[in-house]
Amino acid sequence: DDGSTDNCPVICDTFAKKFDRFSVIHKSNGGLSSARNAGIHAAKGEYLVFLDSDDFLINNDALELIAKALNDTKPDLLIGLPDEYDAGGSKVIISHSPGPWKENYLYTESGVINELYHLNGIWVTLAQTKIIKREYCLLNGLTFFEGIYHEDDEWIARVLLSKPQLAFLYHPWYGYRHRENSIVSSVDSKKVYKRICDKIKVADSMLNNKSAKDHIDYLKYASDYLLNTIISAGQLSDDKQAEFIAYMKDYQECYKKIYYSKDIKLSLKALYITLFGEKRFINKYKG
């Protein structure tokens, strides 16, 4: 209960009284990452499963399916796939194809990290489909960055570059609901500006990870993430663009990291910004 102002606290307490396996945490509102971090520290199980309030587990055997996959391989991280539903949660609108990795197999080589970022998409987003061993999470300091949008991108990058032992589960067990007026679909101008600035923070974290240079496809992904975020600032008003360009003064070192990607196109874009500034870069790619 992250400071809910509706009837959620009562509902939570009612379930906890009826079922002793439920635990309730009442806390002041701190946002998604704060709520997840509270759960991470309070959890008693061996593994952590994240379920957002908009979403749901598919069928009653979802946790049994997960438990079997975990027991078979004992990974640090189990990567799953969601089915994506309409706002009502009744119709699947996107299903994802299995990846090239084997199920029921423990991957220990770091090359899989590059493969994940080469495919990108759902594999390196959506923390809810990444089931992590709690002890591994705590020992490696893998809690969520609080107070930002796009916290999943930043967290998953840190998790994967910590080089966990990986396993995969392709049978969809997580129902991701597409809802209007959600955080990711908001068109509120203040939220749009904050979302762009927060993505810069995420890109900065990704590019400055000490293991980034060891994973070229990851580095390309992070570089592209930064550059596309800067381009997206073209949607801002002139005043907000000026504010954003001033904001970018604290992130100039990021451009140097892009050169390590050994990608000519990305490196030339980084050089262009270094020579001519973000304003001209935004205008060059605007529209």
Q: What kind of sheet is the major sheet?
A: 6 strands, mixed
Share in helix: 40-55%
Mean pLDDT: 94
What is the CA-atom radius of gyration, in angstroms? 20 Å
Topology record:
Elements: H1 8-18, H2 32-42, E1 47-48, E2 56-57, H3 62-73, E3 77-85, E4 92-95, H4 111-119, E5 130-133, H5 134-139, H6 151-161, E6 166-177, H7 189-207, H8 216-232, H9 238-247, H10 253-258, H11 264-285
Parallel strand pairs: 3-6
Antiparallel strand pairs: 1-5, 2-6, 3-4, 3-5
Helix pairs in contact: 4-8, 6-7, 7-8, 8-11
Question: In words, what does this structure look like?
Answer:
This protein is about 45% helix and about 10% strand. The mean pLDDT is about 95. The longest helix is centred in the last third of the chain and has 22 residues, at about 265-285. With about 290 residues, it is α+β, with helices and mostly antiparallel strands. α6 (about 150-160) runs parallel beside α7 and α8 (about 215-230) packs parallel to α11. The protein is globular, with a radius of gyration of 20 Å. The chain is built from 11 helices and 6 strands. Strands 1, 2, 3, 4, 5 and 6 form a 6-stranded mixed β-sheet that branches. A hairpin with a 6-residue loop joins β3 and β4.
